Fold this sequence. Notes:
alpha+beta; 41% helix; binds adenosine-3',5'-cyclic-monophosphate
Amino acid sequence: QSERTLVIVKPDGYRRGLTGEVLRRIEAKGYVLAELKVATPDRERLAKHYAEHEGKPFYQPLLEFMSSGPATFAVVEGHRCIEGFRALAGATDPTAALPGTIRGDLGRDWGEKVQANIVHGSDSPESAEREIGIWFA
Ligand code: CMP
């Protein structure tokens, strides 16, 4: 049956004017935008969202970065869209991400402590439902 994933165009993507390009690629792939909003992520919800990374060296810089300005949140729908969006996004490190992917085509290393890698996509159906619950409560 159909599946949902949470996609975030992170503050770096928003600042660089890449929101439309990311949403265009999602739609061109054939997935459906079920919900969409622009908001500056608050630290309380970011702490929930990134709970699994607490204690890692990039955790605090990640919360700083993610709360630094507006981001776009999308609930994306379609068969196997979790796997499909992660393929569209490319590897976490934008330097290593293959050309043809969002991060590979549009991202680079900016010498920061955190990977400013334009997009987030849920990594499993459980994460997707949990994350959608946090941002679209
Ligand atoms: P995301 O998929 O949103 O989940 C965790 C985020 O932390 C990730 O994207 C990157 O932005 C960042 N991240 C993951 N691994 C590292 C790392 N090794 N160094 C810096 N930032 C990282």
